[in-house]
Design a protein that fits this description.
Elements (H helix, E strand, L loop, with lengths): L1 E10 L4 H11 L3 E10 L2 E10 L5 H11 L6 E6 L12 E9 L6 H11 L3 E9 L8 E10 L4 H14 L3 E6 H7 L3
Antiparallel strand pairs: 1-3, 1-4, 2-3, 5-7, 5-8, 6-7
Helix pairs in contact: 3-4
Length: 184
Amino acid sequence: MKKFIISVLGKDRPGIIAAVTRVLFENEFNIEDVSQTILQSQFSGIFIVTGPDATDPGRLCGALQAGTSAMQMHYHVREMDPAPFTWTACACESFVITTRGPDRKGLVAQITAVLARHNVNVTQLEAVFRGGSEPGKNMMIYEVDIPLDIDLQQLRADLKEKGAELQLEVNIQHKNIFEAMNRV
């Protein structure tokens, strides 16, 4: 069996996942992982699937386009390296970093640059910018893995310094604490 990664983009509407997964099922693919979200009015999904060895990425892309043509979705299909996944997870703890403040270009780039300098891996990012300079309507939520050997106080200080420079309120909490405090 070959493994493929499929990205799906297009205007959101009911039935996209049903249509995509129907085509995959009809073509003998098994879904291993999927991540999907809606950004403003746009659907975005990533599927990792396994399927027949004779599968060509271009043909799979064509089958998806044909099977969902009424939805006018855009697809990209790429075969994944068959070598086993060798990245070893670091000895890390999960944290949540939130920022709030006025919107401007480069916020994500500058915050993630601080994280990269500290070898922090961003595992999930949600950025919602709705209010121009109204800080309460502009928020970024970073789920991150922080290596245990990182100086957490220095990371906090660097994030706070960058936040002040960008007029952002920056908070960092262990993921377990964040989830406990933000349960609905």
